[in-house]
Amino acid sequence: MYKNFKDMPVWQSAMNAAVNIFELTDSLPRKEDYGFTSQIRKSALSISANIAEAFGREHALDKINFYYFARGSLTETLSHLDYGQRVKYFKNDKVRELNVTLSALHNDLNKLIKTLKDNVSKTKYP
User: Fold this and answer.
1) Are the beta carbons of 108 and 13 closer than 8 angstroms?
2) Fewer Cβ within 10 Å of end Cβ, the chain: N or C?
């Protein structure tokens, strides 16, 4: 059991992805500051924020919900990355790297959700 959400590899991976997306978007046109740049940064940062919030929740069902929120933010981020690639804001290799990272993170979140759901089921129906 982790003593702090910052010790969780899934949180660390999510935070690293958010930092990478911040760096990727640092050179976007200024006209995108309150549009696309803001949207993709918020969705990327929301992944780790929801993981941290799940950590702070006491009940398994609350934790599950926040892991679902994190997963939703992750897929939103993937959509933004695809858009950025299509409009030629991002280089294909950078998007590929982030897609690999986010795909692994998606799998990790699914494992957390499944484990918690299995534990809830065992508690309800011993």
Assistant:
1) yes
2) N
Helices (H), 6-91: 9-25, 36-56, 60-86
How confident is the model over 86-111, as pLDDT tens digits?
999 999 999 999 999 999 999 999 99
Domain total in the chain = 1
Residues 72-110 as b/e (b if ≥16 CB within 10 A, e otherwise) read ebbebbbebbeebbeeebbeeebbeebeebbeebbebbe
Amino acid at 113: I
Looking at residue 64, which CATH number applies to its domain? Answer: 1.20.1440.60
The pTM (predicted TM-score) of the whole model is 0.93
**How far out from the chain centre does Cα 24 lie?**
16
Residue 125's pLDDT band (boundaries 50, 70, 90)? low
Residue type, 102: L
